[in-house]
Amino acid sequence: MKNTVQKQLILLLIGISTFVFSQETYLWKIKSKNGKHISYFFGTMHMAGETFYNQYPVIHRSLLSSDMVITESEIKKEKIIDEFAGRPDSNDLESKLSPEDYERLKTVFKKTGIDLRKLRRDEIVKMMQLRIWKSGCVGSDQYMLDGYIQKQGEDNGKKMIYLETSEMQQNYIDKAKISRYKSGTGVIKGTLKRYEKAMAANEKKCRGMQNEYLELKDRYIFDKSCESLSKGDQILLTQRNGTWMEILPALMEDHNVFLAVGLGHFSYTCGLIEQFKNLGYSVEPVPMKS
């Protein structure tokens, strides 16, 4: 994956939106086995922004208490633009869309700094869909939640660790054969129309999965096997969690860690919460409401 959309979409791609256990918190406290360190795990929703983060001061206090901040992958616009600069043209939309539709599409991406010709069709659809969701959920926020956490870590002098590279995430996406973002010309035109409608709407509303998160209503499943997940979800969740578990325990024995990853990574028997419990760690939810 080589754009900010795919770096911010992993939770949505997992497709985990049915939960059965609620803690009304997305923050968890984990004590190291050697008793020397306290770490915090925070489950993110990539459509939330800095307003959500600042609404619950305990999140920031937990980050400040750490000496290391760990996130899924680095999100920096300037690096993303540089990645695209050397990419060959990746779509044929100029010849497939009408001149009017193509100009409308170019207008959408004009302020991104990315040449529309460098984007694959699926990336174009994902980027427009993200901005549709963002218009209703994030409002005037300048950052999405994961990017804002990275900024807070950097601004406060924390050591920054990223669990995955862009290439690693793209490989997971490809292996999972995600099909929900089909990229036919008709899909692009339809998404463009929905994008323009969302941008023109006077009333902004956050609905469904995103709204549940913002209201602290998302729930966890801790006792359901990951074998019940689809093959694609097992790749995006089970395999990635397994890879992360190869490095996280050792880091937490030597550091006070603040880990921020998609909330879906905390559920199911293969989720990070249950895996740390099974390893004998003390794991407990931290109330977010004061």
Average pLDDT works out at 84
Radius of gyration: 19 Å
Level of helix content?
Answer: 40-55%
Strand content: 5-15%
Sequence stretches where pLDDT stays below 50 over 5 or more residues:
1-22
Helix and strand sequence: HHEEHHEHHHHHEHHHHHEHE
Structural classification = alpha/beta
User: What about the largest sheet?
Assistant: 6 strands, mixed
Shape: globular
Physical arrangement of strands within the biggest beta sheet? 4-3-5-2-1-6
**Spatial gap, N to C terminus:** 39 Å
Number of helices: 15
Give the number of DSSP strands.
6
Describe the fold and architecture.
The protein is α/β, with parallel strands linked by helices and 290 residues long. Helix 8 runs parallel beside helix 11 and helix 10 runs antiparallel to helix 13. The two termini are 39 Å apart. The chain is built from 15 helices and 6 strands. The protein has a 6-stranded mixed beta sheet, with helices on both faces. A hairpin with a 6-residue loop joins strand 1 and strand 2. The longest helix has 17 residues.
